[in-house]
Amino acid sequence: MKIVKGKCKYCKKVFLYKSYPSCMTRVYCSRHCQIKAQRINPERDMEILRLRKEGFTLVQIAYPYRITPERVRQIILKTKKYIKNDSL
Ligand SMILES: [Zn+2]
């Protein structure tokens, strides 16, 4: 284990964290930033919407993204709304 310096992908703050060889590199300074960053993910959201249109179930879509089917449903609703607003 060693202490390494990282830069938060969301708030751009430099932070220190404990690094373990088995762990992935941390890219967010806090859980808060991670959640915030994941909330805004147009690429993923568009992909989810596309999969849904192709007829996949919420459960099938949720699995590879490690999110809940309920979250998938919310993302689809949000993305549809976003597209609608965007085209106006
Ligand atoms: Zn941060």
Structure, explained:
This protein has 88 residues and is α+β, with helices and mostly antiparallel strands. Helix content is 55%, strand content 14%. A hairpin with a 6-residue loop joins strand 1 and strand 2. It is elongated and about 45 Å long. The chain binds zinc ion (ZN). Zinc ion (ZN) binds next to loops.
Write the layout of secondary structure elements.
Blueprint: E1 2-7, E2 14-19, H1 31-39, H2 42-53, H3 58-65, H4 69-87
Antiparallel strand pairs: 1-2
Helix pairs in contact: 2-4, 3-4
The structure holds zinc ion (ZN).
Zinc ion binds at residues 8, 10-11, 13, 28-30, 33.
- How many domains make up the 3D coordinates? 2
- Content-based structural category: alpha+beta
Ligands, deduplicated: zinc ion
- The radius of gyration over CA amounts to 16 Å
| Apparent shape | elongated
Spell the H/E element sequence: EEHHHH
> What composes the largest sheet?
2 strands, antiparallel
Spatial order of strands in the largest sheet: 1-2
**Low-confidence runs of at least 5 consecutive residues:** none
Average pLDDT, all residues: 86
